[in-house]
Amino acid sequence: MTNGTGRVEIVREGDASGEVAELYGELRRLFGGFVPDVFKLVSTRPDMLGAFVAGYRSMFGGGRLPEEAKEVIALTVARVASCQYCTTAHDALLRLLGTDSTYADAVLNGALDDPAIPTGIRALAELATTITQHAYRITDDDLDRVRSHGWDQAQVLEAVWVACLFNAIVRLADTFGLRDLGELADDRIGVSSPA
Fold it and tell me: What is the pTM of this model?
C-alpha cells in the first residue's frame, strides 16, 4: 500500500493480491493492459472496488445505447462537473472510437448546439448536463424530448444510469485529488504531479 494522491491510500498494482489482484486483472483486460487510476482510489476496499468494476461494466459493457453515446454522456458529465481527470480520459476514449474530431471537439468544449453533434446524441448530452447540474429539475417533458429523437425507454434508462453513475465517479476522482492520467501508475508513485 502506498499513499496515492496524498488524500487516500491505494494498493499498487505490483502489491495487489487476492481479490484486488483479480479485479486489477479484469481491469487490465477491459482497458488494454492498464488499470485506470480512478479504480485505484477504492483499492484498499475490495468490496468497493468490485462494486466499482461492476458499475463500470453496467455502464459500458454492452447495453442498448451505442458506445459513442455513452462516451458523450461520460465526457459531458465530466466537463460539466469540471473533473480534469475524467474529461481527459473520456475525451480520449471518445476519439479512440473513431469519432469525427469536429464532433468530439464540440462535445469537449460544451458546444452542444454544434451541427457536428447528431441531434439524438445532443439530446442525451443535454439530459446528462441537466442531471449533473440539477437532477431534481428533470420533468416528464425533458424525458419525452429525449424519446422524441428516437431513443426508446430502455435506452433512456441506460443514458440516465450512465449519467448518474458517472456523476459519482467524477466526484470520487475530484474528492481524492486525481487530476492526470497515469498519476497513480506504479512507476509514478511518489512523483509529484503537475499543479
Answer: 0.92
